[in-house]
Design goal:
Growth Hormone, Chain: A, about 230 residues, mainly alpha, single chain
Length: about 230
Amino acid sequence: MQVRNLSILVTCQLISATGSIVMVTLGGIIGSTLATNKAFATLPLSMMVVAIAATTVPATMLMRKIGRRKGFAISSICAAVAVMVAVLAIQHSSFALFTLSTMLFGVNMGFTQQYRYAAAESVAPRYVPRAVSFVLLGIGWNFLYVGGTTLLTYTYSMAERFRAQAVNEFLVFGTSATASLLAGTIMYFFGWGTLMLVPIPILVAICAALLLVRKDPLLNRAAIENRG
């Protein structure tokens, strides 16, 4: 494996993950403090996810034209601007400005989702799962994203990779944006208990889908070739 490239990607992902953890941890608290209507407390985080979903396809297509390095540089600039806007929002107690800052940070995250694909493309096919796992954190995150990203790389050619990645990211974060927008409303009107029950049917459907594709000949053939 190309250790230098992976080391750089891991470092960048750590910085990005730290920012997203802080935003998710404090975003709802800050939103609740700044919002006049507490039903909108999670709106800034929801808009961040909407911004991620809206950015994934343009970010992927832009990286296709200018390269991943310049694309990641643009994302870093967006993150820096987002932090400055967030500081102003807190200083002036502006809910609108804070929402804008989370959206700018969402644009940054739309670009940084490409770190795992950059890792996958920098190593031989048989090292893809290991490379992707290096740039992702968390047990659940690793199982879902490493497995999903690895399976995705088996389904397209290198010429198709940017389009396939763009479609995948848009579907993932489009669904996340919808769920995020609904979550705050469900929690406010029906409480945590109901919110915790909503994902159960979706998880059952995901498990059923995984069982159906487990014996797909294309995936099995690609897995055998990569192990060899």
